[in-house]
Amino acid sequence: MRIREIFVLALVLGLALTSVVKAEESKLDTVFIEKLTGAKGAWNKDQTVFKVGFPRKEVKVTVDGSPLPPFMGLGTWSAFTTTKEGMIMVMGDNVLFQDEVNSVMSVALENGLDVTALHNHFFFDEPKVYFMHISGMGKAETLAKAVGKVYAKVHEIRAAKPEPAMNFGYKALPEKSSITPEPLEKILGVKVTAQDGMAKAVFGRKTKMSEDEMGADMGVNTWAAFLGSDDNAIVDGDFATHEDELQSVLKSLRKSGINIVAIHQHMTGESPRIIFLHYWGHGKAAKLAQAVKEALKQTP
Fold this sequence. Notes:
The chain is an alpha+beta fold and about 300 residues long. The protein has two domains: about 5-160, no CATH class; about 180-295, 2-Layer Sandwich (Alpha-Beta Plaits), CATH 3.30.70. About 30% of the residues lie in helices and about 35% in strands. It is built from seven helices and 18 strands. The strands form four sheets. The chain has a six-stranded antiparallel beta sheet. Strands 10-11-14-15-18-16 form a six-stranded antiparallel beta sheet, with helices on one face. A three-stranded antiparallel beta sheet has the order 4-3-8, with no helix packed on it. Strand 3 (about 60-65) and strand 4 form a beta hairpin.
């Protein structure tokens, strides 16, 4: 083959490859995604991914007393790609401060996104930083709008109060706890354990590690513990959920005003897989128990 023919062939192949890349990029309409999310993005032609995001630089974070620049892991992002089935998928990680987490989570859930993890990346960070992972599948416009609302809520919270809050702002609990167990037992339908004016309910679940069944006493359980008085109480606990139950439980708890403080796994290799979410709420003990009961309906 002569040099001229080789050159022409290479040019044709190059143009064809460029056309493929442009076609993939056009499926996502990257300019539209930037507009809807309110965040700038970059196209990765090798992975056919369009990734938008922004650094959390408006709040100064220190870890173990040293300043932590956004480059060191304080970047919020969402990545869009086209699946083999022709659907659009988004996955992302949101860098959030404590007073942002639950409001932002509610926005994500209300707009069709899944919340798949919530955890920390650091020790001794001030203010404390949490990372909330999201995912979704559907039309690019729908997903980008949802991500845009998530980002807008973050900006709204920080615009109203530049410095992250250091507490929930709840009414202080009485010095001595005096939770009455019987109303909680009636609501939750189980016998509670009482101690020093506190009450705790446990709901066992089951999974297998290899061929061995694991249950409540091996840590596979949902629980709710109550502290304070009947009219001024807190509830904290853990929900053990199957993967297909997680979003429903999150939505139920958030609808009831319960704060989610962590989402993660406790085991590896179990079947069915168990995802644990930790929660914290404040109010009348009976109302908190009712919130737990409603969420329990999502884990039959």
